[in-house]
Amino acid sequence: MDFYFSEFEKRTPPQPASYSASRELLYQYLATCNIALGIWYLVWRWGFALNYDAMWFSLPLAFAESCAFVGSVLFAFNLWKTSDEPIKSPPATINECIKEPMDDRPIAVDIMFPTYDEEPELVALSIRDALSVRYPHEIETRIFILDDGRRPEMAQLAADMGVEYITRDNNIGYKAGNLRNALEQTYGDFIVICDADTRPFPSILENTLGYFKDPDVAWVQTPQWFFDLPAGERLPAWLKKRLGTPISWLGTAFEKIYGPVTLGRDPFANDPQMFYDVIQRRRNWANASFCCGAGSIHRREAVMEAALRSYSQQISKEHEEVEKQIRKLTKEKSVDKNISANLRQEIIFDTEFTPYKFHVSEDIYTSLILHGDTEREWRSIQHPQIESKMLSPQDLQSWTVQRFKYSGGSIDIFMNDNPLFKKGMSLKQKLMYGASFWSNLSAIWNIIFLACPIVYFLTSIAPVSAYDTTFYMHFLPFVITAELAMMIGTWGVAGYQGKTNFLSFFPVNLRALWTVLRGKKISFPTTPKSRQQGLFLHLVIPQIAVFTLSLGSMAFAWYAYSSGSFGSYSLGGLILNSFWTINNMMAMWGMIAAACWSPPADDVPTTVETTKELDYGIE
Questions:
Q1: Are 550 and 579 in contact (CB under 8 A)?
Q2: pLDDT for the residue numbered 161
Q3: Could you give the angle at the alpha carbon of 492 between the alpha carbons of 490 and 497, nearest 5°?
Q4: N or C: which end of the chain has fewer CB within 10 A?
Q5: Residues 393 and 224: beta-carbon distance below 8 Å
Q6: Is residue 71 predicted with pLDDT exceeding 90?
């Protein structure tokens, strides 16, 4: 089969961002200044700048600014410093990776590919690359196709490629349940988790197993790299194709002044470099880099040991809760020993033993369990080098489905099993996880940030006491130092598209939050691995509404100000809110453009796979 990504096969991954001690020191200085200025601004904002004539407007914005500031403090803590783990030489035998020596032998590694309905031809590419994984010492490597679709053609693929095939007669727990089923039937010392489209590089084991010479290292996460991101079109070529040669000359002239402009490159802001090379990598110093599923290597002992301890704690917790209810009903001080023993047996029988938590975000949930293990104090490591390649969502529907899952899973953990209130993790770890959870609540205050300039333009009512010199003296230093700190702290990794994408993400984020608050399950189709043709404007109706209202209200306000026909606008207020609105509109436009983007017709395969609806529980 000819896949759309065939033309990108020869792409090479980017190198990790280089570390600079002086740049890190400058970031720490700027971040400290920004936090101090942020506190100064908010104290002034709450104490002296509320508009008491419009508290219905002023208070929500002050609340939104405060919430956003909390997020910026957590983000600054996340980026505070870099502490890359030194890459060690690959171990030759198992005794180099454990505390208590045993009869020495070569290391055993299981490479697992969970799959449900992906095309066999796609999985075959991943298996082919896994068969090319090398190691400088004798090693036992077994490759498994974990087929939750129970397909004869997938079993035949495993036989043809000389790898092992595992399936089951149900889909309990979905991916987590699939992995648990495989763990029960395998014995490797280390487990490499791959998605069906994960293509491991030959170096993945020799570059990562050295970390496990520290017997406290539980897992290593490698960066995910989407090698199929659209290359895009240069502005002159884009204009020529749509408007003709004469108009393309304007594009050429513009590029000579502004520099190269590429349209359609990574339209969904899928590039994960910011997340892995900056955010995850900076969490190593706090031992808080969490597992992200594909491309991760796990110590089997850690997964099973932490799962057993979590299993025991869950049983004890449920046992105590039921006994408490019994005592309340019977008015007795204690429960009969025989009844208590029988009750415990029933709870054990009804409770699933889950090495990987049955959860829509099983990867981060498992990380929480391991990081919270007080008896072993397991460590995690974010490896900086890319060791595999995989496919990205290629249309807005697939992107929305994926983001809904990520957001809903994180919010559910935050609401129902919040690690910030549990013993086991250090304060640094709790703050790092807190940054992740807090960001998924951002739609609440992002809606306020999107609505405020529109309200001002339509009513001329200001959310602050006045847009005067005092306001700008407090506001501008805070905003400018925030932008400077971000520029320095991200090591030059482009972040603007990600920030605007984050702002325009609010409808999906809100839907995920509402789903969790109602105690509902998150339902979504499996992500297609083929590009989908067509427009997806129905998915961006909220963004279109914000864009239209922003543009219309801004035009109305400037007209009213120039003509003096309505309201009491100030020039300073109009300028500030116009910049604010333009930023919001650019964010919305990015998502709207993504809904309209489609690959060139000759890049789309003749067959497009269908998707099946799955219900992923988040109980």
A1: no
A2: 97
A3: 80
A4: C
A5: no
A6: yes
pLDDT at 237 over 80: yes
Spatial contact of 406 and 436, defined as CB atoms under 8 Å apart: no
Dist CA 577 CA 566 (whole Å):
17
Residue 47 CA: distances (Å) to CA of 222, 466, 475: 47, 14, 14
Beta strands at 164-167 and 139-147: parallel, antiparallel or unpaired: parallel
Q: How far apart are CA 425 and CA 288, in angstroms?
A: 9
Q: In degrees, to the nearest 5, what angle opens at C-alpha 616 toward C-alphas 613 and 619?
A: 155
3-state secondary structure 193-214: ECCCCCEECCCCCCCCHHHHHC
The identity of residue 399, as a single letter, is W
Backbone angles phi, psi at 148, to 5 degrees: -80, 0
Q: Which helix (H) or strand (E) holds 389?
A: strand 388-389
pLDDT-based confidence at 447, cuts 50/70/90?
very high
The pTM of the full predicted model, rounded to 2 decimals, is 0.85
Least confident of 87-96, 203-212, 353-362, 457-466: 353-362
In sequence order, the β-bridge partners of residue 140 are 108
In angstroms, rounded to a whole number, what is the distance separating the alpha carbons of residues 146 and 158? 10
Instruction: Identify the sign of the CA torsion 568, 573, 579, 582.
Output: negative
Tokens of residue 63, six digits: 């609340």
Length of the chain: 619
DSSP H or E segment with residue 289: none
How far lies 161's CA from each of 9, 123, 124, 129, 165, in Å? 21, 11, 8, 11, 11
Phi-psi category of residue 265: left, alpha or beta, with phi > 0 → left and psi -120 to 50 → alpha: beta
- Per the CB < 8 A criterion, the answer to whether 510 and 441 are in contact is no
Q: What is the pLDDT of residue 606?
A: 37
Query: 328 with 337: CB under 8 angstroms?
Result: no
Amino acid at position 192, single letter? V
